[in-house]
């Protein structure tokens, strides 16, 4: 049978109110009484009912996290940052994978809100009207993590994705490359897709280079799509000399395609990406990349959410973290 607070009170010879105060870390309990209650809890194997406590306090000390792809190392790093700060402030997290599918994202958001989470962190693609409607019906704080909404009305933590792509392409241009291809993400994705594509175009225009749609291929962020895009570039009558990839995983697919065709990086092609995941330093040659502070994005998002949940003053609800170009062996001079 389930052990109840009544059983613990009887075992310890105290009132149920005293057991409740001990369980909830109320300081108004004598040390000797506290010790008796904890000994009774241990003997009986009592576990407090978090749901019941949440109903009583209207707080569950739980945060819902919607993640696009739990198998992606980038999002795993963000989740680690979230988890560390959540632990620091004594919150538990419920992590839900949404597969970058809008319908599933909306369903997961509603499910988490039904579970009475105290706050919600959303990592995803485009924040659509359907997302905004789900957010508006929530009575708990919401923070966008590694993404933003078009109007900037919801608190968010991210980098400037257009500037990150611009800096990556400018790095290639400064090395003398004038024919630069891009492996992009879906343009419906405002951050990893559209913004990085805009940064690519702006870098070309700023340097007086012509945009060529034959040098752009849209992938799905996966290794295979990077390799497939690179195969297209290799088949062009006039090949580019450098490739900018919107993500590390697609960049590594491109590098392996180059090598499988008897060519070398960076001697025949230079490759650079945005992300700087652990994979960037594992591939050979090591991948040059614009580093997103993924752990920090997660940590700062969770800290912002804790402030909102505690109704603390928030000076900046839209946080843009810095990025940097990390040069390795995949980029060479033309």
UniProtKB/TrEMBL annotation:
<dbReference type="InterPro" id="IPR046335">
    <property type="entry name" value="LacI/GalR-like_sensor"/>
</dbReference>
<dbReference type="InterPro" id="IPR010982">
    <property type="entry name" value="Lambda_DNA-bd_dom_sf"/>
</dbReference>
<dbReference type="Pfam" id="PF13377">
    <property type="entry name" value="Peripla_BP_3"/>
</dbReference>
<dbReference type="Pfam" id="PF00356">
    <property type="entry name" value="LacI"/>
</dbReference>
<dbReference type="InterPro" id="IPR000843">
    <property type="entry name" value="HTH_LacI"/>
</dbReference>
<keyword id="KW-0238">DNA-binding</keyword>
<protein>
    <recommendedName>
        <fullName>Catabolite control protein A</fullName>
    </recommendedName>
</protein>
<dbReference type="InterPro" id="IPR006377">
    <property type="entry name" value="CcpA"/>
</dbReference>
<comment type="function">
    <text>Global transcriptional regulator of carbon catabolite repression (CCR) and carbon catabolite activation (CCA), which ensures optimal energy usage under diverse conditions.</text>
</comment>
<dbReference type="InterPro" id="IPR028082">
    <property type="entry name" value="Peripla_BP_I"/>
</dbReference>
<keyword id="KW-0678">Repressor</keyword>
<keyword id="KW-0804">Transcription</keyword>
<keyword id="KW-0805">Transcription regulation</keyword>
<keyword id="KW-0010">Activator</keyword>
<feature type="domain" description="HTH lacI-type">
    <location>
        <begin position="3"/>
        <end position="57"/>
    </location>
</feature>
């Amino acid at each position: 049978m389930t052990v109840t607070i009544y059983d613990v009170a009887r075992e310890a010879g105290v009132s149920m109110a005293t057991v409740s105060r001990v369980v909830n870390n109320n300081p108004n309990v004598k040390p000797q009484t506290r010790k008796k209650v904890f000994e009774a809890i241990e003997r009986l194997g009592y576990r407090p009912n978090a749901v019941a406590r949440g109903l009583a306090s209207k707080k569950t000390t739980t945060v819902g996290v919607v993640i696009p792809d739990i198998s992606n190392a980038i999002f795993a790093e963000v989740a680690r940052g979230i988890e560390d700060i959540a632990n620091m402030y004594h919150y538990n997290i419920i992590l839900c994978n949404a597969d970058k599918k809008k319908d599933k994202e909306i369903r997961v958001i509603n499910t988490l809100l039904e579970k009475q989470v105290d706050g919600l962190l959303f990592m995803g693609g485009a924040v659509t009207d359907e997302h905004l409607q789900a957010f508006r019906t929530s009575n708990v704080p919401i923070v966008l993590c590694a993404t933003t909404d078009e109007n900037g009305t919801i608190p968010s933590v991210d980098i400037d994705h257009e500037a990150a792509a611009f800096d990556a392409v400018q790095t290639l241009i400064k090395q003398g490359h004038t024919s630069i291809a891009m492996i992009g993400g879906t343009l419906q994705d405002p951050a990893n897709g559209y913004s990085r594509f805009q940064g690519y175009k702006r870098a070309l225009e700023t340097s007086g280079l012509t945009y060529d749609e034959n040098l752009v291929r849209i992938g799905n962020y996966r290794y295979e799509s990077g390799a497939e895009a690179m195969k297209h570039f290799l088949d062009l009558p006039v090949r580019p000399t450098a490739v900018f990839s919107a993500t590390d995983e697609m960049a590594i697919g491109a590098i392996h395609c180059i090598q499988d065709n008897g060519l070398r990086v960076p001697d025949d092609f230079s490759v650079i990406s945005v992300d700087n995941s652990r994979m960037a330093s594992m591939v050979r040659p090591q991948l040059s990349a614009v580093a997103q502070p993924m752990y920090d994005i997660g940590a700062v998002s969770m800290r912002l959410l804790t402030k909102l949940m505690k109704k603390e003053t928030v000076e900046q609800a839209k946080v843009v973290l810095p990025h940097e170009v990390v040069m390795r062996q995949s980029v060479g001079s033309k």
